[in-house]
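Async update (no meeting this week)

Hi team, since we skipped the sync, here's where things stand on the single-chain job. The sequence we agreed to prioritize is pasted below, unchanged from the tracker. I ran it this morning and attached the output directly underneath so nobody has to dig for it. Comments welcome in thread, and please keep replies under the output.
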Amino acid sequence: MTELVHRRSLAERIFIALAFAVSALVLMVPLAVIFAFAFREGVSVYFSNILERNTLHAIGLTVLTSLVVVPINVVFGVCAAWLVTRFRFPGRQFLITVIEIPFSVSPIVAGVIYLFLYGGQGLLGPALASVGVQLMFTVSAIFLVSLFVTAPFVARELIPLMQQQGSEDEEASLSLGANGWQMFTLVTLPNIRWALLYGAILCNARVMGEFGAVSVVSGAIRGQTNTLPLQISLLFNDFNVTGSFAAASVLALASVITLVLKTAVESKGWR
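Output:
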């Protein structure tokens, strides 16, 4: 029996070591390469690349997109989750399927769809142009496609949790005289707060790293409609390798911060 336990323990250690080795090779080594190339010409060159006008604009536009898209998708996710978990109506399962669509559609395809809808030669483009509205190749187009590709994240985190929790707490609060807003803020929101924050973090990570859909609808205009992922690609194509890795290090740092926040929220949620 002791020998069996020893063998089992040895096998567990081997698998744990393999898991760490593979994780280091797949995740840590590329991350280290990004920062090594970013700083290979010195700290002053690194910061000069980061503070370059177009790169600064790309960073600002990426942050702005996140500030616009994440709150909208948080509100949408809460409303959608509330609707499908607290009510029974015809088409409920279809609505859940529609919420999942962005996960099954390639981001580039989503960008092309928006281009065919709102572009100058698209279905709705001429009508919009007649009233002086241009959506494609503007910041608004970036907001639109980012909303599309990140729409399911918050709802997907909330729906299973709210289904599991049931509606007994809300019904009890209503029976005690609470109004709708009091029920939501004092009962529903505290029960879903960690899942809501977790979904918002995932949504933010996807917004900041989105490339495919944004590259189609933005036009990648330097200093105007370039988000940080597009700026990294343009710098690399311009053979400014150090500049591209410097910009990539900012995105990588944002990803690490997101991962730390995600881990912290998961830990709080489990506790």
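Quick observations from my side:
The two ends are 35 Å apart (CA to CA).
The chain has two domains: 1-38, 43-104+136-270.
Reply here if anything looks off.
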